[in-house]
Write a structure and sequence with these properties.
heterodimer; A: 164 residues; alpha+beta; Immunoglobulin-like; 2 domains; 3 helices; B: 236 residues; mainly alpha; two-stranded antiparallel sheet; 67% helix; globular; disordered N terminus
Chain lengths: 164, 236
């Protein structure tokens, strides 16, 4: 092995060592570079969070059964806007609609600027048994490159009776 | 080559002293430049659309460190491998692995039923232009991999199979999570690193790198190669 190494790997020129002064400066540079990169990674992580999340989107999934799934959703930054919501049952996309149904109770509770922020989905035909409904608000970023889903409220589990 | 007695002593907050030897500094240089490349590679897809230009920061920092390191270690372009006097010798040594790779690719492609198409690399680009772009990109990769990483690995672990393995492992790591490309680059990185330590010539390595890439893309299944995508971009 040592002989093979000696015959194959010839001496490579110019593998110079650094002077003590150069080494000290270079170590400081490497530390500075690491700090810069940590800041860049943090900025990208924060930017990605802000681009894909809107903390002002609020809502609640009030009710889910084998007939209807209903609730409300509001964008606190723009309370007059009707937000889009998507229904998923058992992690499968079912339907998308605009939350513009009458919900005077949400308005009266000062959670929305007017009465029209509710949504009602008609449940599809489901197999008998237990199902889970989730509703998400669609968040579009500043650019059109990303659209993300934010869950509203908690998922609701309901039972579906066997078909007649 | 290296001397531990020439260590730079640094006092820590608790009053202890530890030393930066040339060897440890070379290892740190490799880690630092590789971290920059990994950040750029894995952030590129994350930052797409809102701040893609931000990846220029780690890339620029890595270039700065590489250039400063060359200067402080007094390495000339010729030392690094930008030279022509040993080009033919390097090419003659590289000819065997290149031919073996070509035959292996043809065999694997034939076994997997992939039709050979030598215009598959970038079909919309003229083949001459594609070769020029491929050569420049290969030269840049080989410069960082051999002209910097291999030379620092030689300081860190010594000349020989150990440093060759370090270079191959790093080259493969940079191509994750693309499993096929990771395996291929480990083998390629091993061969190039070993030959660079014998005949340091970056032009010969870049020529064979672009030739091997062309052959691999032309013969192996495109679905397996996943359009040569690596990093987070592999998933998009």
């Amino acid at each position: 092995m040592a002989r093979a190494r000696a015959t194959f790997f010839v001496r490579t020129r110019g593998l110079g060592s650094m002077s003590r002064l150069s080494r000290a400066t270079f170590v400081q540079l490497l530390i500075g570079k690491s700090i810069c990169e940590a800041l860049v990674v943090t900025a990208v992580a924060a930017g990605l969070f802000l681009a894909t999340t809107n903390p002002a989107l609020h809502g609640w999934l009030d009710h889910a059964d084998a007939q209807t799934i209903s609730g409300w959703a509001v964008d606190d930054n723009n309370p007059d806007r009707r937000v889009q919501v998507q229904l998923y049952i058992d992690d499968k996309f079912i339907e998308q609609r605009i939350a513009n149904e009458a919900r005077p109770d949400v308005h009266q509770a000062n959670r929305a600027g007017d009465d029209w922020h509710g949504f009602v989905f008609r449940a599809p035909l489901l197999a008998a048994g237990e199902h889970e409904a989730r509703v998400y608000v669609i968040h579009s970023g500043a650019t059109a490159t990303r659209r993300t889903l934010q869950i509203i409220g908690n998922p609701i589990t309901f039972r579906s009776a066997p078909l007649p | 080559m290296t001397s531990d007695s020439n260590a730079q002593s640094v006092e820590t907050l608790d009053g202890n002293r530890f030393a930066f030897t040339d060897r440890s500094l070379a290892g740190w240089e490799i880690a630092s430049v590789m971290s920059s490349i990994l950040i750029a590679e894995w952030m590129a897809a994350t930052a797409a659309g809102f701040a893609k230009a931000i990846i220029a920061i780690p890339v620029a920092l890595a270039i700065l460190i590489v250039i400063l390191s060359h200067r402080l270690r007094r390495e000339s372009l010729r030392d690094i491998g930008f030279r022509f006097d040993n080009l033919l010798k390097a090419l003659s040594i590289l000819a065997v692995p290149v031919l073996a790779t070509a035959l292996l690719c043809l065999l694997v492609g034939w076994k997997l039923g992939t039709p050979v198409n030598f215009l598959r690399w970038h079909p919309n680009r003229h083949v001459v232009l594609q070769f020029a772009v491929g050569f420049c990109w290969a030269l840049a990769q080989q410069y960082v991999l051999q002209g910097f990483v291999n030379r620092r690995a030689m300081i860190w672990t010594g000349r020989g199979w150990g440093s060759v393995l370090v270079v191959a492992a790093i080259f493969a790591l940079l191509h994750l999570p693309n499993v096929w490309i990771t395996a291929i680059t480990f083998v390629g990185g091993f061969i190039w690193a070993a030959i660079y330590q014998r005949v340091p010539n970056l032009f010969a390595l870049a020529i064979t790198h672009s030739l091997m890439t062309w052959f691999i893309v032309s013969t192996l299944p495109p679905t397996a190669l996943h359009h040569l995508r690596v990093g987070l971009g592999y998933f998009f």
